[in-house]
Amino acid sequence: MPDIAEMRLRRLEQLFIAFNQHDIAGVMACMTPDIEFDAAAGQEIFGHRFTGQDEVKAAFEKTWSDMPDVRWDSTHHTVFGDCGLSQWIFRATLRDDRRIEANGCDIFKFRDDLICAKSAFRKERPLLPIRS
After folding, report:
1. 3-state SS string over the chain?
2. Residues 120/39, Cβ–Cβ less than 8 Å
3. Going edge to edge, which strands form the sheet with 31-38?
4. Intra-chain end-to-end CA distance of the chain, in Å
5. What is the pTM of this model?
6. Domain ranges in the chain?
7. Local confidence band at 1 (pLDDT 50, 70, 90 cut-offs)
8. Which residues, 6+ apart, have CB-to-CB distance to 104 below 8 Å?
9. What architecture is the 4-122 domain classified under in CATH?
10. Which residue has the higher pLDDT, 44 or 18?
11. For residues 56 and 39, is the Cβ–Cβ distance under 8 A?
């Protein structure tokens, strides 16, 4: 039987597969009912906080709706104790065809093998020009 660190690492892999497939059921299955998600942007020092499965689900669905091709590529995961770190490249096209491409990471907290907190960090970078 895998140890808890291995289970948590697999959970992060499962999460990012679901993110990139825009599979909301798969994403939410990785999280506790009381999940807290701190988005990379927002008015508060921690960004914008979404609390609970309903708010977090709505936030991810809005991201996929606003940026239908959004992906988190080149993902690398690390687990240490009840924390995890995922590094990625965020790639997306906005509705006006301008593009985002920036490095970022998520810091996670686990309860057992489920994610109970996710805090996103992304490099601030000017939007890329419309593809011709």
Report:
1. CCCHHHHHHHHHHHHHHHHHHCCHHHHHCCEEEEEEEECCCCCECCECEEEHHHHHHHHHHHHHHHCCCCEEEEEEEEEECCEEEEEEEEEEECCCCCEEEEEEEEEEEEECCEEEEEEEEECCCCCECCCC
2. yes
3. 49-51, 31-38, 114-122, 99-111, 83-93, 71-80
4. 51
5. 0.90
6. 4-122
7. low
8. 40, 72, 87, 88, 89, 90, 120, 121, 122, 123
9. Roll (3.10)
10. 18
11. no
Q: What is the pLDDT of residues 87-103, one digit of tens each?
A: 999 999 988 888 999 99
Closest C-alpha to 57, from 93, 23, 88 = 23
Q: Token pair of 51, please?
A: 């609390």
Distance CA 103, CA 41 (A): 14
pLDDT bin (cut points 50, 70, 90) of residue 77 is very high
| Spatial separation of the C-alpha atoms in residues 103 and 122, rounded to whole Å | 6
Q: Maximum Cα–Cα distance for the chain, whole Å?
A: 51
